[in-house]
Write a structure and sequence with these properties.
The protein has about 350 residues and is of the alpha/beta class. The chain has three domains: about 1-60, no CATH class; about 65-275, P-loop containing nucleotide triphosphate hydrolases (Rossmann fold, 3-Layer(aba) Sandwich), CATH 3.40.50; about 280-345, Winged helix-like DNA-binding domain superfamily/Winged helix DNA-binding domain (Arc Repressor Mutant, subunit A). The protein has ten helices and 13 strands. It has helices at about 35-50, 85-100, 125-135, 155-165, 190-205, 225-230, 280-285, 285-300, 305-315, 315-330, and strands at about 65, 70, 75-80, 110-115, 140-145, 170-175, 210-215, 235-240, 245-250, 260-270, 270-275, 335, 345. It has a nine-stranded mixed beta sheet with strand order 5-4-6-7-3-8-9-10-11, sandwiched between helices. A two-stranded antiparallel sheet has the order 1-2. Helix 4 runs parallel beside helix 5 (about 190-205) and helix 8 (about 285-300) crosses helix 9 (about 305-315). About 35% of the residues are buried.
Amino acid sequence: MTYPTGPYLAAPANGYGHPDPDPEPWHEHAQDESQNPTQQRLAALRAALVDTRGLDSIPDPVALIDGLLFQDSLAWLYGKPGSGKSFVALDWAGCVAGGLPWNLRECSRGTVLYLVAEGASGIRRRVRAWEQMTGQTMEGVVFLPIAVQLLNGIDLAALVALATEMGPTLVVIDTQARVTVGAEENSSGEMGKVVAAADRIREASGACVLMVHHTVKNGSDMRGSSAFEGAATSIIRVTKDGDWIDVTCDKQKDAEHFAPIRLRMSPTDQSVTLVATGTDALDATPSGTRVYEALRDNFGTTSATGPQLQEVSGIPKSSFYRALNALVTTGRVRNIGTQSRPRYALPGNVAPVVSPTDSH
């Protein structure tokens, strides 16, 4: 019999190295290849081939948080236990879901799936504190307080299906250790499976999949195999010194390393929140500048409640309270009232008598 030939297929010979002496129409015996998985994959690979001009059609990476995280990527955020990494991850989640800037950096707005695999009992207090600090509810963040096991086939398939349904922009897995129970972290083979599982979630949703992870015991390096470093688009480290949190860049595959970011942990509503620090950063923040100028120009020798100051500044509530708290933390604005009934003034002003009817 004879065989079809094409650009990738050569005509085979019979057992003696010669053409078949009794050819028959090949299509009479050929099987339908349309359902052959190898042929389907081959067709997909052929369709994906590009030449030098075709490279221009490949889109540039799209930032999720400008300079830090990117859409459709794998990222790791790591630090020692108690370093504040979960507070950073939650703050990122809230800003992405609300479309709020994070530390002067623009965020692309989208739904967030937050897998609370560790510390689920404390997440409510942290969310309420964030809501009080920002002045808005954390809409758009959907929490899953279950330690779904990424190396369990059924668990992973269900999580991938959930991510496909939701189509989140950001998936936070907090922490990696709790969703890979029993896995050998120093095994490149087993950690390669963890990377593959995270990649399945990314492919299904197009999200940035952020793994919250730990450092090695008594060390500063990220725990586990080097497989993470090769797979990650972004690797970000969190360290803590007292109330101060430093966010630093270990790796950015598609962008320059960002400069270290210093945050301060501020007690808020039975928990803590993170606020930006440094007067230079505040001066560069449009919202911070407008709040400061509104206080100076309208209440320069007196004081104002939060709602009064927001009204004259003309800033949306969601951005106003973040900027105001940052100003208070760095001392450019003082709360001369109480925690339950705050009044805000420029440094040096005399505290007024707080009326019981003052709003806050």
